[in-house]
Amino acid sequence: MEQDDPVAGLYARAEQAKVSMAAICREAGIAETTPSRWKNNRNGPTYQTIRKLDDALRRIVADRPEQLARAS
User: What is the CATH number of the domain that holds 48?
Assistant: First the structure.
C-alpha cells in the first residue's frame, strides 16, 4: 500500500484492475460512501479499513478467472 496516501493508492489499484469502489466496499462489508468521504476529507481512514478494502480488491481480482469460466 502507498505510504503517502493510502486512499489514492486504493483508488489507483481499483482503477487499474477495472473494479468499482462500490464492488470493493460490498465485498469488504463497508459502506459504499466511506471511500468518498475520505476523498472529500470528511474523515480519515483507519489502517484496518484500508486493509479490508485492499483484501477485498485482491479477492475480487483473484476470483475473476473463476467468474469468467462460469459465465461461458
Answer: 1.10.260.40
